[in-house]
Amino acid sequence: MKLFRQPSSEPLWRDEFSVFAADERYVSRRQFAKFLVLTSLAMFVGNLWILVRSWFSRGPAYPAETVARLDEIPIGGVKLFPYPTPKEQCILVRTGSNDYVAYSQKCTHLSCAVFYSGAKNRLECPCHNGAFSVRDGSVLQGPPRRPLPRIRLERRGDELVATGIHLRQEV
Amino acid sequence: MFGYEFYIDPSRCIGCQSCMKACEECETHRGHSMINFDFIDREETIATAAYVCWHCDDPTCAEVCPADAIKKGDDGVVHSSLKPRCIACQNCVLACPFGIPKIVPEYDQMLKCDMCYDRTSAGKRPMCATVCPSQALAYVRPEDVVQRREKPTNVFYFGNQEVTTKVFMMVPENQDSISIDVADYIWEGEYEAVSPA
């Protein structure tokens, strides 16, 4: 099998579809360079497209849903509610007389349901001893790497309304 | 590759058809003989001739293949069609000047003599050449063939077209090539009219 071959005067299709098995596998340096340049150009344009799209796109729209009345839960009490779809369970914690926080109940490690531990004032996952801060949802211990997604809450009259989900990056 | 060449000498063929039976034993096309076996003129003579593929330097079968399925290896052996590519269109069957490729309907694929590639690529002799009792099909070293009365050639003329091959044909001493004008072999007799009853 020849490793190097002189540029031939034959048309390209004769080189590409040669009757010789060795020629069919042969890739010239120019072909390889062309392949590298074109694929990296395509990657660059693709990334540019993703970047531009993320600049001009708004995030997903979340519905506003009433989740609880203000006096419904005692201080240190919790309420579970589905948001934004009926299958996504979230946990609402009343941490002070006027402080409410809500997080997705799915542990960011392997999706077990986290619960509120009043004694330690944190959200805990029973599966692998993961724990999240009740203040901002950040990881305190255990295998999870990402903080819990936080549910945006709004007070309307004497009702708490969930208006969105705040996803945060790995810390 | 191992210093052997293939020589075909139809004048030595005794019509035993051992080559066909041996060819059928080959693993890659078991049950299908890839030997072209001819009765030259059955009314007049008992002469027979057995042929393998000549493995042309510029294989016409591969040139006409629309699916790019027929490939020639580095050692000059033209292989059977690649199964994933062959579409059994029979272009090669019609184009080959020697009539070598065969469509096998069970496989929907063209198979041809690949000079027992599993054997010859490992330095063994092809099945047909090992069994031929008169060595009409011989896979030997060139220095053994010069002792024969005939002379080997691998140049064929079909009309004005020159075809050179890997496999040699034995020709009379005073010839350098084999010229075949296909028009000479067209039957000029009259067809019997067959009435549709």
Contiguous low-pLDDT stretches of chain B (5 residues minimum) are: none
Q: What is the SS-derived class of chain A?
A: alpha+beta
Rg for CA atoms of chain A:
28 Å
In N-to-C order, the SSE pattern of chain A is HHHEEEEEEEEEE
Reading the helices and strands of chain B in chain order gives EHEEHHEEHHEHEEE
Mean pLDDT of chain B: 91
By secondary-structure content and strand pairing, the structural class of chain B works out as alpha/beta
**Spatial order of the strands forming the largest sheet of chain B:** 6-1-8-7-9
What's the shape of chain B? globular
Helical fraction of chain B equals 10-25%
Radius of gyration of chain B: 17 Å
Report on the biggest sheet of chain A: 4 strands, antiparallel
Shape of chain A: elongated
Descriptive notes:
The complex is a heterodimer of chains A (171) and B (197). Chain A is an alpha+beta fold and 171 residues long. Helices cover 22% and strands 29% of the residues of chain A. Chain A contains 3 helices and 10 strands, in the order αααββββββββββ. Chain A has helices at 12-16, 21-25, 29-56; strands spanning 65-69, 78-82, 89-94, 100-104, 115-117, 122-125, 130-133, 139-141, 150-156, 159-166. In chain A, the strands form 3 sheets. In chain A, strands 5-6-7-8 form a 4-stranded antiparallel β-sheet, with no helix packed on it. A 3-stranded antiparallel β-sheet of chain A has the order 1-10-9, with no helix packed on it. A 3-stranded antiparallel β-sheet of chain A has the order 2-3-4, with no helix packed on it. In chain A, strand 9 (150-156) and strand 10 form a beta hairpin. The mean pLDDT of chain A is 87. By secondary structure, chain B is α/β, with parallel strands linked by helices. Chain B contains 6 helices and 9 strands. Chain B has helices spanning 18-24, 60-64, 91-95, 117-120, 127-131, 142-145, and strands at 5-8, 36-39, 48-51, 102-104, 109-111, 137-140, 151-158, 161-171, 178-180. In chain B, the strands form 3 sheets. Chain B has a 5-stranded mixed β-sheet. Chain B has a two-stranded antiparallel ribbon with strand order 2-3. The longest helix of chain B is centred in the first third of the chain and has 7 residues, at 18-24. The radius of gyration of chain B is 17 Å and the shape is globular. The model of chain B has no long low-confidence stretch (mean pLDDT 91). Chain A binds chain B through residues 1, 17, 19-22, 24, and chain B through 58-59, 62-63, 68, 70-74, 79.
